[in-house]
Specification:
With 200 residues, the chain is an alpha+beta fold. Helix content is 14%, strand content 28%.
Length: 200
């Protein structure tokens, strides 16, 4: 699976807790095309010939190692606001189309959260679809947005009065995956992404 740049990762984890160590109600995850695109492409990345992908569903998956899943059985959702503070980007052939959200409050979403080991984000131990390998038929709120924007996450679902099992997911997590099902539009030319894909 692709990993965001060290700067992207650090900025997110630094925002999960406040200066006093409390769990934040406004952690920020900002994704750029460079975080997800790759020249070779593959099942878990966007290839350079994927133009203007739009999100159909989104989820967050916390790597909690061998700790039993606690979020899925509890139906945990993270209140999230998309398209905040930074322009929304849609990579095209020959240009990177960006625009600012018309609503300063962003796009409200409730995003399903799951946890477990890294190998189970998409499939189970036998290779069968599981967790975020299975999406509901209905589109999520926020469907149609670009994955390349800023998301504000209210991490208070991990704070008391949440159960200790749920609280421990965040405190023991070694990684968080932002998982998107996207609607792909492919072309026979590369998306314009300086430093990632060929420019046209």
């Amino acid at each position: 699976m692709p990993s965001g740049s060290p700067a992207t990762q650090k900025a997110f984890w630094d925002s999960v807790f406040t200066a006093t160590g409390a769990i934040s109600d406004s952690a920020v995850l900002t994704l750029s095309p460079a975080d997800i695109y790759s020249r070779p492409g593959g099942a878990s990345r966007l290839a350079c010939m994927d133009l203007a992908p739009v999100v159909r569903h989104a989820g967050f998956y916390f790597d909690s190692g061998s700790t039993p899943p606690a979020l899925g059985p509890a139906g945990v959702e993270i209140v999230t606001t998309a398209a905040i503070t930074s322009p929304v980007a849609f990579p095209l052939s020959g240009s990177l189309f960006s625009f600012s959200s018309t609503d300063p409050l962003g796009i409200p979403m409730r995003v399903r959260a799951l946890n477990g080991n890294t190998g189970s984000v998409i499939v189970d131990a036998s290779g069968n679809p599981a967790n975020f390998g299975i999406w509901p038929q209905d589109l999520d709120a926020g469907a149609g947005i670009s994955p390349f924007t800023s998301f504000r996450l209210n991490m208070q679902v991990f704070a008391p009065p949440a159960s200790m099992d749920i609280q421990k997911v965040l405190t023991n997590a070694t990684a968080m995956f932002a998982v998107f099902e996207v609607e792909r539009r492919t072309a026979n030319v590369d998306a314009w992404l300086p430093g990632v894909c060929a420019s046209n």
